[in-house]
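Internal ticket - ligand job 317, uridine-5'-diphosphate:
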Amino acid sequence: MQIENKKRVLVTGGAGFLGSHLCERLLADGCDVLCVDNFYSGLKGNVAHLLANPHFELMRHDVTFPLYVEVDEIYNLACPASPIYYQRDPVQTTKTSVHGAINMLGLAKRTKARILQASTSEVYGDPEVHPQQESYWGRVNPIGIRSCYDEGKRCAETLFFDYWRQYSLEIKVARIFNTYGPRMHPNDGRVVSNFIVQALQGKDITIYGDGSQTRSFCYVDDMITGLVHLMASPKKLVGPVNMGNPDEFTILELAEAVLTKVGGKSRLVMLPLPEDDPKQRKPDITLAKQQLAWEPDVKLEMGLEKTIEYFRRILIK
Ligand code: NAD
Ligand code: UDP
Ligand code: UDP
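stdout (structure tokens):
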């Protein structure tokens, strides 16, 4: 009998939007994948098609509790990413980022695994520097409704860098900018999924504020490639590294692009802008381009088409 020597990879938050795509990619790359999730904002259905694969294992577990498993690499994605979800139980959100990081770093320390943190552009808050470079320290409200997510993620970055300095752990910190694609939860509340679902159902498109705020949207496949490249990069590249698509759009432009693609009779309606909503966001990805030879390929138009196709399919079911 041949003894297989596959890389054992843990993906926390593996049943979520990004996590499920990452599990798929790692299996295709020949890894043994352990997907850990408490299904707070993810769905078993996102990984149901992987369950028959003998190299895939799904474990229900909350990362705020210790986890003793043997692995070679850890992608730490566990954390609700949509404002609706992370603000529903803000104390749990901070615990997930902070206690979750401590536990996964402790696990990485014991097993000598390389560990990647899914950080976020939210560490820049409502930025006064545009586009955002990794050297920018950000402008974050420590006591607002987004703080559980922003400050939790900032503290997780601190923990990653302290474990690196103090225990020489092999860390990688990715600052992920708005990413979209198939398997976003239809009620997840993020802008791309909201607009597509509203357009497909002929409902009003809900623009928060006047729609002049900007975001830069990255298609999921590009993001997964970037994360895998970062994990495989030389040990000295610890980050933080911005990962995202620098093509910037106003929210109004996004609404119009979705409406043009979907057609239908939806109207645009303006609703109040949520507290602390960042006015502009665009990654400077020079570092990722130079150090990882990575940049996104998929233009918004193409990414929207694939995402619309996905939602059309699941909404008909
Ligand atoms: P998601 O909500 O779809 O996925 C997060 C997953 O983590 C879910 O499956 C959820 O059930 C799980 N989870 C939450 N708390 C947990 C806990 N305590 N223990 C175990 N599992 C837990 O969101 P996503 O968009 O896939 O985001 C994945 C990661 O990437 C998150 O850490 C997020 O902060 C980060 N990120 C995403 C984006 C984006 O635009 N998608 C942008 C910046 C950062
Ligand atoms: N931990 C874990 N799995 C492991 C090793 C550690 O979940 O395989 C958790 C454990 O709960 C611990 C935390 O990670 O409290 C931090 O570990 P570390 O070794 O840094 O600290 P200590 O054990 O000294 O508190
Ligand atoms: N947004 C909107 N309508 C919606 C959902 C979101 O206008 O139905 C806006 C939101 O106010 C923000 C932007 O779209 O300015 C992106 O929101 P999302 O929650 O997707 O991501 P984040 O604010 O975390 O970047």
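Auto-summary: Residues 8-316 form a domain with the Rossmann fold fold (CATH 3.40.50.720). The longest strand covers residues 114-120.
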